[in-house]
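Internal tracking record. Fields below are filled automatically when a chain is submitted to the structure queue. Please do not edit lines marked as system-generated. If the sequence contains nonstandard residues, flag them in the REMARKS field before resubmitting.
Queue: standard
Priority: normal
Entity type: single polypeptide chain
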Amino acid sequence: MRHKVRWWDSLSMLQRWTALVIVFLACLPAILAVYDHDDDLQVPHTEVEHWANKIGTHLFYLSNLFAQYDEIRDNFRGAKVQRNDGLQLVKEMAEDVTNMMKYKIEAVKRIMNVAEEASLDQFTDDDEVDYYSAKKLNEYYSEDDKKRPGQLKEGYRELKLVPNSHFDGIPVNENFSSVHVPTNVYDKAPDVLRAIRWSGRLDRTFKSNYELDPTLSWQYFGSSSGFLRQYPATKWVLDERDPDLYDARLRSWYIEAANSAKDMVILLDVSGSMTGLNREIAKHVVLNILETLNENDFVNVFNFTNDTKELVPCFNNTLVQANLENIGEFKKALSQGETRDIANFTLALTTAFDLLHRKVQYNKSGQGSQCNQAIMLVTDGAPNQFEEIFAKYNWPHLQVRVFTYLIGRQEAAVRNLKWMACANKGYFVHVTTLAEVREQVLKYIPVMARPMVMYQTNHPHIWTGVYADIADPKQTDWLWEVRERKRQMDRTNNYRKLQKIAENRPIPLPDPSMIHDEAQVEKFLKYGNFTLTQTEIARIEAEKERKGRRQRMRRDASSFTLGNGGDAPSDGDALIEETLNQTGLRRSKRDVCFMIPKRIHDYDLKKRFDRMFREMDRLEEFYEHNRMGRREAPGLRDGYRLMTSVSIPVFDRRKTMNITERVLVNESIWIMRTREVRSANLLGVAGTDVPIREIEKLVPPYKLGVNGYSFMVNRNGYILYHPDLRPVHEEANAEVLRKSRDKRKWFQDILKPNYNSVDFAEVELFDKDEDLRSNDSELLALTMGRDYNNKLRRDLIEQRAVETLQDVKVHLDGMKRVVTRGQWYYTQKVDDTPFSLGIALPEKYGRYKVFGQIELSRAIQDPRSNRAMDHFSSGNWTLHPEWVYCEYKYDDGHHNLTPEQLMTDFLSRAQKPHWKWRSTRTRPLPEPSLSHTTSAKSRMSGGLENERRENYYCDKDLIQSLLFDARATNVYFANKKMFEDSINGDRNPMEMYMALLFSSTKRHITGITTSFVATRSGLTRWFDIPKHNSSEDPKIQEGLPHFMQVHNRAIDEVWYKRAVDYYEQDPLAYVYSVPFDAATQDPAEVLVVATRAIFIEENNSKKAPAAVVGVTIKHSQFVEYFINETSKCPSYPSRDNGCKDGKTCSSPHLDCYLLDDNGFIIASDKKDSTGKFFGTIEGTIMESLVQSEVYKRVRILDYQAVCLDSDMEPSSSSILYTPVQMIKWSFNWIVGNIFWLMVKTHLYTLWDPNEAWAYTHVERDAQYPVVNDPSPDYPDHKDIYSDPSSFPDDSEPYEDYDNVEKSVAFPSLELEFPIELAYINKTKPRPCDKEVNLYILQNNKLKQDGVYKPVKGKLSNCHANGCGRPFSVQKVKSTNLILVAVNNQCKCESRNVDIEPAEVDYNETMHCNRLLLSHFRRRPQNCYNYHPEETEIKLCGGAGSLGLPSLTMLISLVLAHMCYTLKLHS
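SYSTEM-GENERATED OUTPUT FOLLOWS
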């Protein structure tokens, strides 16, 4: 029998207390759970779920009703889904591009043949040379000139120029060519005049080529003597403040055609004798040599004294590719270093030969060009000829050419250096001044071309990489310098205002203590205002960003188009003159812009002035763009026209030439002697531009579909074009600018330093785990993820036809959003070019396309069918501005038509008899004889004019698809009554509810302003919801373009792409977005955009996107609805009472946000948060959402980023400690006047009429003060007069603080501001890598059993007192939004989580290893580096000297000029 044990009584007192403690500790979690549960009640999870579901249901039915989703989707059911064969598609596109390229090649071959024949023509030097100088066209004296009012300026010629849209709206003359002569070339030199004379025969060839191929762009011939002949003739637009830096011989199309690829070693003497001017000349020689290299060349630079070291330590014992990044490293290193010791030529030459041939395994490893090899020796003299070194390394095969550059005026050093060049198939030049450096350096190019010229029979054509149509690449550096000077001027003016305040001048201050606050003073120096709030500062910075986009908005909006469209506004000056005459005001343009608005009291007159200001802005912008080399035309990348060029060398067919040289007869007598010598002269290079826009026309985006794209890659792996190519730095959003420490973080309209050497691996971001799945993880870590050995990249370079699937990361919306997806890649080579064409199609939906067309010819024959334009009867509509539907090949009277006008014109013509489709596909090149015969017959029969008039082409598939889409989307209403009738019609119960809820009396509370649809064919149409009072819309008052007129690019719009991508996650969802800078905009102008994709599906296996519908909603009313709903207590049948106090978003203890799928705030009760990234507001909560797998973090690397380095200059006060500086400045002033006098008087022709060089002025700032002190930014006339009642009173005093005296004397008060406050932190751009973390919403993680449920979380112990912050997350059904509710009672420490890209910090080793990394590439096919007869050519350079009479005259004239200058200054 078992006995009961009274175990409790058997325990001692100690054991009992121990047991009680154990029980208490065991129950403690439950007790705490109760506490936590009570704490969690502070976040109403159930209410959050209810709010989210109600908001989602409401928005879904509301958007569906107004967007008419169901009706448009039903109208597309007649379309079919077809397979999109990527391989066949890319093959057809590559064939079209190949045919187009062949036309360009044949055109330059014809120019080359005619040029070589024309060069043989015999002329006498007395024959007058008739040509149009591009710099001297159509300039007249002003009407105020007393001697020649309104007459053509002396030395100028008159030529009729007509704006032509085919040439970017630039006024041209198609009957002539014009000649541009660089500043450093004397246009009266005999050899220049002879070449200009015989090249005049090219005009007929230029015209013939243009008639045969109307898609030809600029045709040109660049002469080796320096000038450029360009067709059609146009004026070279210059400004007296801008330098003319253009020299055709330095352009890539000239350099690559004139020379085969080369390996080059530059030896720079930095011994003790290379000081002062000699040092500067030598540095400029090296810089100019580097500028003549291209991406097919390899180079290294060595400094040599008693030892020989690489200029860039990273480039040890190797040659590096001469791309922009490596050239930049050399240029940066050249500015450093010092001269010392004695030059050891033996070691230097041995090092160079070893690198090119022997000990170092560089050349044996297969790297480099493996073609031409050269040593460039830059020194002020060599002690001997070092014959034994050349005998050992270079004789007898002479594989390495030696070019020698003698610096300075040491005539005794000529002999040895000239012997080195002559004995090694090189060339010797003597450089004595900075001004002649470029001309002397360029002499090596014809020498390198000799083997190619001597073969004569083969003229290889070359294709360049991508480049921008600007005057000179160095101009971007100059533009940046101008921007920095403007920034300095603004800060200096603000500093002067601050000085006035310190002197107690009558400038009001809201708080006198502000002037003692360092932060407030800095704000004033930057913005010129003490009272700005952080929000106002953000708006100022955001306005700078929007200003850069404004021109594109105006250009794309058809409502803004005036006159000639993209051309120079023809009526702008006439309008200005008419307005001035009517008002009786006669002022300069700049005075009109600023002064006239103060005198306007008539509202109608004000509106006329508004239009006049817009025309003046466009006129000034047009000429500014021409001056910068930029063009206003479709196909631009951020204001620049990108292009490639095909060029071909032009040879002199004569094998000998006569030279006249000075010969020393005895020790004191020189005579001139003429003799015949063997020669192989390069006459120049012929070429034509191929705008990237013309290539993209042959790869129409509509065939690729939404999120599909095309690209081209050259043999070096560099992209020719790609949707992610960003040649101009994009400004950051308002939040980034507000928080940035950089004084100016924008590169508006300035090219990036390495814009044309972007690798394929830097734009295609493959989504893979380098550590787990890559065999080259160390290599990828070294290159920061760049996969240069990717098989797809190798296939593109080797021009293989491939099909492959890759997982990629694609960033959108200015690198603020990201999507991850699989993409199919298809590639094909472009014959006769180094390019490969590729296309990328999304894996999920890109392999299928919607096929639906209305056959236009059948519709014409059917009398019951509607007219084609009837399908465009409802709503407003526009077409993709960059797509080619129909186009005239010539510009005869069609340049001012918008795409919509062109379409209307062609559709009306298409419904008339004898209409013919003309294919957009390029035909194969016809036989040359047939081509010339056809052209001749056309001219003889007089049919050329008719051919030009009817020479058009149309994309049949695109137009017929457009008609189908127009019929399917023809659902909008012509007026307000039709809209109201549709609302009151028969609908399903939910729609009836919505119709009653938003009847005509309450419709304004919906906030919906516009319904729209965009389709696969580029059609965008919209309907503006009628309002009771049109004055409610501020955009109507301001005359701004409509939202849909700006965002009219259909499948290329971000909202279109996002809607299609999001369809895979939720087919019922609308995708919502707001502008990132919404918080800085006028709240009345901010719109919420909601879009939803329409897919056509067949058999549940094939689907393709057909269109995207959407609505725009006023953000203020959207937020109002959000706050109203989240402030209500939902009632449930299970309980009678409502929710407790403090359990709604109206509570001060609860913050509620609507976030989109990338973490941006769509709505909240905090107005300043709209559009911002959630992590910048609640960084710790954002981190918790990532840890809870609500969002996924995706790392994006930007390999095209630009960083700013400080470029501080020494203070001007340093002259107090270095009096020698005054002597140096005086010397520079004297030398500058000497050269200026030489240029003005052509004095240099006294001793050598064949030599000319440019004047490099050292005091440009003093001569052109406008650059240093440009006109201040005048207030916008729109800001002054937003309404008629805001006109100013004439009696109001006005003080222009921007025009204060330039005295910087300190005030004689106790409060003083040091002059250092006026200095900016001067910066200089450089290429760099940046990384950023972006975020993607993971919908599947928010579901439980297929239903969206709240995600509950809490930040525990985030404060010193141990409190926490609970939060709740709920997916908003049928949207891309989540509702986040956060308890804010615990003041947790929150860190900032932003999406601002940060620079990747490379250490010295990583930086060097990355630069030295060998990327897979393919060498050019043609190599000409040897001809057996070249040794017969004995022309290897020479030197000249000043004669005594010329020197005496020079000194006399210089002294006279200096005296006259001093008299003027006194």
